[in-house]
UniProtKB/TrEMBL annotation:
PANTHER family: CATION EFFLUX PROTEIN/ ZINC TRANSPORTER (PTHR11562), RE54080P-RELATED (PTHR11562:SF17). It is a multi-pass membrane protein. Keywords: Ion transport, Membrane, Transmembrane, Transmembrane helix, Transport, Zinc, Zinc transport. This is Cation diffusion facilitator family transporter. It comes from Sphingopyxis soli.
Length: 208
């Protein structure tokens, strides 16, 4: 069991075993469904935080699909896939940051009740996925990128709930925008972490 968790270091991989692939398929389905739910709710509630979280769900679904596509491939290919995912995380973070700044200048006050309900549903979904992926958090860069996405999502959902409370308590939109900015920072930080591990994996391949 320990060898599977440390696959990136041993040269072997747990990525192609049936349990790992089943978890990724479940995670992909959950994230795709929650993207649909959150993007509709985010637009209806005029919440930048919910819209940002919805796009994060979409990005994660794509990341899980990439991980399934490279399962069983050589470490170098898995590391390149992780670099691609890190790039998408970085783009997402920059887009959300820009959206938060735009909302600060032009946005209205979002609906706190909708934010709270959808945020709770999203948190439950992401915690379930994170628990399934927890045992694989110390693998190669590709496995770690999947874990980082899920961990950041759960943290982001807690922030959305805090934003809902802030909007409800103040009657203003700035808590929603602040949380969107925090989620952007998480995505940017996570992308840099994945970049670092992917480059390490590629360096280990180059050394032979």
């Amino acid at each position: 069991m320990a060898d599977q968790c440390c696959a990136g270091k041993s040269g072997k991989t747990a990525l192609n075993n049936p349990k790992w692939r089943r978890i990724l398929w479940i995670a992909l389905a959950i994230n795709a469904a929650m993207f649909g739910v959150e993007i509709v709710a985010g637009v209806a509630a005029d919440s930048r935080a919910l819209q940002a979280d919805a796009l994060d769900f979409l990005g994660d679904a794509a990341n899980y699909a990439i991980s399934l596509g490279v399962a069983g491939m050589a470490l170098a290919w898995r590391a390149r896939a992780a670099l691609l995912k890190a790039a998408t995380m970085l783009v997402f973070g920059l887009w959300v940051l820009g959206s938060a700044l735009w909302g600060f200048l032009n946005g209205a006050t979002p609906q706190a009740e909708t934010m709270g309900i959808i945020g709770t549903l999203a948190l439950a979904s992401n915690v379930a996925v994170a628990l399934m992926l927890y045992r694989y958090r110390t693998g190669d860069a590709n496995m770690r990128s999947v874990w980082i996405c899920s961990r950041n999502d759960a943290i982001g959902n807690l922030a959305v709930l805090a934003a809902a409370l802030g909007v409800f308590g103040t009657g203003q939109g700035w808590p929603d925008l602040a949380v969107a900015a925090i989620m952007a920072a998480l995505a940017i930080w996570g992308s840099l972490d994945v970049f670092r591990h992917a480059r390490g994996d590629l360096a280990s391949v180059a050394r032979g």
